[in-house]
Prior knowledge:
The complex is a heterodimer.
Chain A: H1 2-36, E1 45-51, H2 56-69, E2 73-80, H3 82-90, E3 96-99, E4 114-128, E5 136-137, H4 139-146, E6 164-168, H5 173-183, E7 192-194, H6 197-206, E8 210-215, E9 224-225, E10 227-228, H7 235-239, E11 246-254, H8 259-269, H9 271-280, E12 284-285, E13 291-293, E14 299-301
Parallel strand pairs in A: 1-2, 1-3, 5-10, 6-7, 6-8
Antiparallel strand pairs in A: 3-11, 4-8, 4-9, 4-11, 4-12, 13-14
Chain B: H1 2-9, H2 13-52, H3 58-63, E1 67-72, E2 78-80, H4 83-114, H5 117-132, H6 135-154, H7 161-185, H8 189-197, H9 202-213, H10 215-231, H11 234-240, H12 257-264, H13 273-302
Helix pairs in contact in B: 2-13, 4-7, 4-10, 5-7, 6-7, 6-11, 7-10, 7-11, 8-9, 10-13, 11-12, 12-13
Amino acid sequence: MKKKTIISLVLGVAALMLILTGCGNSGSxxxxxxxxxxxxxxxxxxxxxxxxxxxxxLVEKAATNFQKKNSKINITVQGGxxxxxxxxxxxxxxxxxxxxxxxxxxxxxDSKKLTDHKVAVVGMAPVVNKDANVKNLTxxxxxxxxxxxxxxxxxxxxxxxxxxxxxxxxxxxxxATFEAAVLKGAEAVKSQEQDSNGTVxxxxxxxxxxxxxLAFSYINDKIQxxxxxxxxxxxxxxxxxKWKIWSYEHMYTNGAAKGAIAKFINYMNSDxxxxxxxxxxxYISIHNMKVQKDSKxxxxxx
Amino acid sequence: xxxIQKKLQTKSKATFQDYFGKGICYLCIGLIILxxxxxxxxxxxxxxxxxxxxxxNVFDFLTKTNWNPGALDxxxxxxxxxxxxxxxxxxxxxxAALIATPFAIGVAIFMSEFSSKNGSKILQPVIxxxxxxxxxxxxxxxxxxxxxxxxxxxxxxxxxxxxxxxxLFVMILPTITSLSVDSLKSxxxxxxxxxxxxxxxxxxxxxxxxxxxxxxxxxxxIIFGIAxxxxxxxxxxxxxxxxALMPKNLISPASTxxxxxTTDIGNTVMGTLPNNALWSLALILLLMSLILNLxxxxxxxxxxx
Lengths: 302, 305
């Protein structure tokens, strides 16, 4: 009796495994068909883009518009962070990995396997609580604030108030960009870490003496964006690299993009998206950039 | 003769139904066991990789205070000391349980000993409602109400262990309360009757008889509350400030095991040291819930009445 029940149990589990793996197989067949694709107008397939939360709203919006014209291509956009995006596209779990940083900058990613598609540029600026009464800082002062050498706003011409540094999570794309441009290898002071632009915005807005950094699209009139060396954080200054803190938004594919994936990435780079959507959502168009940056941070004119 | 023999020897429809029902039960149990083993194996293998593959000293991991898994220290070893997170997790949890317990037991005594049937009919759903509120809502309320409040009273940024404690206090209150009510109600009525017959007042009966008799149940309730507080991630993450620093006082930003996990996991790559280090934190959480479960089992075994 006992033997029989164990056998039935094993059989049941085995049957379930079969069903599950069966699903898995058919799923992977689908996606491989999608990645092969066909070059006719009737391209169809399923594309999943995962990664950077900074890029997510733009890709989501673009995907919706794209699918109106290409009803046979099904695009799913998910967040999860740049690290997730890069590692999942590397394992081929997803077709597109969104990232704020170059694959070369991320530990554990083999950048040679991945193809980079830059789709937009994001500028970032230091932001402070309005109470501190600071509007302009030198690059050196910003560096000293974030490394913990300046701890009171009066040292940089503001109010007599303690500085509260709010950082982004370690490994976040925004933080990596900011640290590469401002700290240049120095280690940031240990302080609060928040995992999203939205939370940082809320905290800086409500905490007297708080300082952090945000993507341009999150800066509003309740917080003070700081000019650095009298250069204002504007799109025009980013385009000429007068404003130094900016990064590309990347969409990585494993190998060269084909079929539906290529079609979607081409659409991201088309004027439809770059001329209107990108600007509307607070990003800077890749076509407007007058300079280019490589993965080591070296800037050269285009 | 043949007919009867055949009837007796073949299996009836009911027997097959019996097999079928049993089969389904065993299948479900098998699946759950499989799932639990998979989870245990997954977390353990990933969490132990920090020590086996990346050669981090377990002792360093548990006692050092510097958490910086992405960089190497001056001796070329990765810096992962989880002590600040462990200390913060424990202090937030224990403080929350310490504040919540008197309130919870007070409410439980009222509900089981004093209130009329209608009274507990209203109170019960109110308390159960507190369980159903999603933790992100608690966190948001904490961020918009408790954090500014603490900042105004005590100064600083308002983020820290104290804010985390207050949010968790509200979150574990219903858990402890409803389990305490159950344990107080399960004290046999004749205990109370005997005590009253001996001339004890109502308060004496509650204090000296009912509460004493219910102690194992009450302890279980508190430990379940602690387990919930220990594992809570989102609400705590929103109010604690997430700084991997040794907490100096109750109002300086700190980071619990869970808040570190939720903040950093999306930014690390599977299989690298920073990712493995986070899995080691998860392993600590898993071991803690295992220990808490064992304590509950232990209390339950000793305190049957």
